[in-house]
Amino acid sequence: MDIRPLDPADQAAAEGCYQMSCLADAVDIPDLPVRCRQAYFAGLGHPWPGEDSETLVAWVDGHVVANVEIELPVVDNRDNARIALRVRPDYRRRGIGTALLERATELARSRGRRRIMGDTIESIAGGAPRDPAGHAFAERTGAAELGTEVRRRLALADVDPVVHAELLTEAWRHAEGYRLISWHGSIPEEHLARAAYLDSRLLLDAPLGDLEWEPEQIDATRLRAIEQAIKARGRRPYNTGAVHEATGELVAFTAISMDASWPDHAWQQITIVDPEHRGHRLGLIIKLANLARARREEPELAVVDTWNSVGNDRMIAINEAMGFRPVDGTANWQLAI
Asked: pLDDT per residue over 141-194, tens digit each?
């Protein structure tokens, strides 16, 4: 076995990594679409704003059999590294993952990192069965399991439009003095600063367990750069926000994102409400309105997936009222290096 860094300009190596990751994900999370091709290749060598990235690749007989993607924050959380390790299903349990983790640890240390973080897919009660091997591997490394998220799925064929309409009507009774705005790909300039402030609050409001991860400092410049990175990856974002009419301030917003490869699937992403404006059902209102907009503009859309930290009771209640149902879990791990 040979382990070496991925050169983003090496098309054959990049293609091997992409195909290997598709094979791995199709086994580990078979109900999700495989990784979007455009997003993967656009991201090579062009990490998200505020991050560096490296990929180490394991080769056997001229074939890519595993890799580990390493994200290295450079603005905040500079003691941390996030990793995503994948091994081709027919090459598992041969020590390849262990060897890659050792090399990833060496690289993280060389960049001044003190911790590695990663996650594993977990079975949950009443959900889809998942291979426990990833969990066992993480335990053997000595990592600590410090937080759990649950993935929930909304099957749009099962949604009763009358139920959503009634939820929205009832919610608006609590939201006098607010109005909705929407955007597609670029936040209106007059709301940019407030959107950056709200985005920076996300990790303050979402329970992270005992993970040592500080809130990200998102400013207007970084937010615009993130928008450009999303565009380069071919993603189609839909956003709806709530504006407080008395002040004109953006006080809440939500996002649904669709990958270029999959017209029938979407990701429900950030939903954040300013603490000073909670209690008005704004989270439910913006999510229902944004979903309705995405469905109008994406006629093939059939399923939406989202994740919530265990303990984020407010958002879980909103999602379940909308019809999201649990599928599997994600265990978050932290390893001191």
From this structure: 999 999 899 999 999 999 999 999 999 999 999 999 999 999 998 999 999 999
Q: Each residue of 77-109: pLDDT tens digit?
A: 999 999 999 999 999 999 999 999 999 999 999
| Strand pairing class (2-5; 51-60) | antiparallel
* The dihedral sign for the CA sequence 301, 88, 59, 52: positive
For the chain, give every residue range classified as CATH 3.40.630.30: 2-113, 153-327
Distances (CA, A) of 292 to 151, 171, 241, 254: 21, 15, 14, 13
Calculate helix-pair angle for 220-232, 192-200, nearest 10 degrees.
Answer: 90
CATH node for 153-327 = 3.40.630.30
Strand-pair partners of 136: none
Q: Is 95 exposed, middle or buried (0-12, 13-18, 19+ CB in 10 A)?
A: exposed
Place of tokens 């978050």: 332
CATH of domain 2-113: 3.40.630.30
- Judged by DSSP in three states, 337 sits in coil
Confirm if 65 and 58 have CB atoms less than 8 A apart. Answer: yes
Report the C-alpha gap between 329 and 30 in whole angstroms.
14
Cα(279)–Cα(153) distance, rounded to whole angstroms?
25
Q: How far apart, in Å, are the Cα atoms of 171 and each of 167, 280, 306?
A: 6, 7, 21
How many helices (H) and strands (E) would you count in the chain?
Answer: 10, 12
Q: How far apart are the first and last CA of the chain?
A: 25
How far apart (Å, rounded) are the C-alpha atoms in residues 215 and 204? 6
